[in-house]
Specification:
Helix content is 40%, strand content 15%. The protein is of the alpha/beta class and 678 residues long.
Length: 678
Amino acid sequence: MQQGADFSTTCAGYDRLGLSAKEKLLDRDFFLSLLNSASTKREARSYLARFKDKPAKANNTQRPEAQNDSTTQSLPSGVNLGNFYGASRSVYNSPVFRQDTTPAAPALEPPERLHLALVKVTTPQILDSSVVNGVAKTLSQLSRLGMACCVVVDPGSGDNASALRKTAIEQAERISRAVDAQPDSTSVCLDSVLSLATASSDLPTVLHRKALLSPLRDGQTVIVTPIAYTEDTAKAMMMSGNDAILALTKEFAGLATAPDPDADPILTAQMVSALQKEVSLDRVILLDRLGGIPAFSGPQMSHVFINMEQEYDDIKNELLRVQQPATPEMGSLSSHAAAQVEQNVSSIADSNPISKFVNSDVVSVPHGEASSSQLSSPIRTLVDGHLDNLRLTQKTLAMLPSASSGIITSPTEVANSARVPQAAAGLSVVGTRRQRNPLIHNLLTDKPLLSSSLPVSRRGAANGAQNAMSVPTSHTTFVKRGMPLTIFPEPRLQPWTAQNRAGLTLSDPCIDLPRLVHLIDDSFNRKLDVQDYLNRVSDRLAGLIIAGEYEGGAILTWELPPGVEDDGSAASASRMVPYLDKFAVLKRSQGAGGVADIVFNAMVRACFPNGVCWRSRKDNPVNKWYFERSRGTWKLSDSNWAMFWTTPGLPENSQKFQDYEAVCRSIQPSWADKGIEE
């Protein structure tokens, strides 16, 4: 009997040891994933600043001690005699009748603000178990990092509402089981939180706000089915996933409460403010088999980053042009252009494992046919899906603070990046860098996986590829409500050329010079000699790029090499060098929000698509960022300057290269502290 007991205890110990080893392995994989996703100390500090806990109030911790002090004051001083001279506990706890005013009870502390990600999973019924488990693992990791997750299951569209409702409930339970299978992770399915005023109402509302927030505050993943119940007949109505996302966004943003016209506006504003302080909807995540938003102009296959304020209309119109069939009134795409569009969309879909059906359904355009070239039905379906995702993201971010962001990616990409490498179960081995999880990376850095200003030829190396020339197709689009971009002069109306200079000056009424000077001073941490700078660029200004409310900007000039006179001739204009004189971003906007990418993209794509050059101190820590985005760099001997350029084929043109170098050597700085060596 004793031997049997010892054997049983030993087996239990082995079982516990095995469980502990598994937990350590899971923790190891979790922290390795985090270290792989955050690349700089500044990003880690930024994440901690956004999600740090609030310190507890001092009076909350001192109150029990104060009660004990009041109890012991009635005891006689001297030797501790226990409770011999003291009254019983019931006496101390009995109510005390006072003549003066009873002190007011301290106000309850408001609950800590809940950081939330609203996730929509489109057609999960077509995803295999490995993908669902990978998505569930990522949701669990987001929760461990302080980002609660509310998931909306979107079964797609169809005529049979009963079948769709059944599919939505089944898939919600399937995702719930996958989340519950993760360590220290639980979930709850909710199918009765949405309501409709009548069966003909357009947008549902949230019926039970507390039913949503309570499990989220407890660390549970909430999974919602897009089912709403009418208020008059309690009839279950199947809603679209987009309508459910919009209703939840409106609720979490504190905008769902309809104010009473007769109510005090101050009280109404306070009520809305209190609701907004409860929840911070930081991310709107769309997991769709289509992946990120494709690009049909430029060398990139998809949009890595979208600044909604600047790019929404252009991208929407681009997708609409691809979507719409050619008509005699609209004109038609040439056979070459239509074939290029189909090849682009087909390549995007083909690189997504779930969308490979496109290859068999795409109808190729007959060679040489110059009449209308309509895209095949599967391609139009893909474009329709991308348009829906773009519009939904735009509508949700319009209701949220500017700090919130959206992510459009595929469940397959999230699952692949969440998968544990085979070597992780054994000894550590030397290998390539594992794929970064787009959701974890964005939570830690508030940035896309790849910088949108990074040249396509270098995106492979930035994403961990062995060869910099192997360009992976990105299926993740990072979206910000962003900021407007203002360019003086507008290059689409007046192209920036040396022969057609705009005659713009920094003293122009359309330019806020004091704010521009503050932007430069803050970014460079130096004072600009304003008058000296105005004198230098007065007749050389090519244009100005301003992001937002002077949160970032660039001043570009036309420079002539020393010894070349500006006599207005064609020969003089041909020697002018497009030069980036100032590139500035406010300190509070550096490293987040994509301000630098927005300004740089406008410069190299819209203003100077044929190339531009600039210089930077050799010890400038930003040089790595410059190097990744330039076509070449050259350290100027006998100086502390390095020259960068985006001009194609510059080293092969000796005269132009010498002009670029001469300009970068000759420009004199215009700082107030001229004594500091450049």
